[in-house]
Amino acid sequence: MHVTRRAGPSVDDVNRQLEKLGVELKDLDESFCRSSGPGGQKVNKVETAVRLRHVPTGLQVKAQSHRSQLENRVSARRRLAELYKKEVLGMETKGDRQAKRARSNKARRARRRRQKEEEE
User: Disulfide engineering: 53 pairs with which of 29, 32, 45, 108, CB 3.0-4.6 Å?
Assistant: First the structure.
């Protein structure tokens, strides 16, 4: 029998990341509901969407992009960690850095375009 393992972080890996940030697992309220979108009958009858709430801060995320509840649990925990970093700790997240870089690149292109138009 051949067993395949899914690559990527597990729930335990993301739980350790949350604990490093200072989020205690007992403060998390996790609930499951039916997700929407493609997937047919399976999506309609199985509760795969995950709603995760950090009770002390009131931060709440919902993950329903995957067809598997386990993958949605990992995704919800990852999103909560990013949200906690941004809202509670005031740290810059990966998404913030990407957006900042995109704005900087756009401004640089605009400056170059104006300089080029002035030269002509």
Answer: 29
Q: Which two tokens stand for residue 12?
A: 């335990």
**Is 63 in contact with 73 (CB distance < 8 Å)?**
yes
Crossing angle between the packed helical segments 69-87 and 94-119, to the nearest 10 degrees: 70
| pTM of the shown model | 0.72
Q: How far apart are the first and last CA of the chain?
A: 70
**Count of alpha carbons within 13 angstroms of residue 57, beta-carbon side:** 19
pLDDT at residue 97 greater than cutoff 80? yes
- Decide: 6 and 22 in contact? Cβ < 8 Å: no
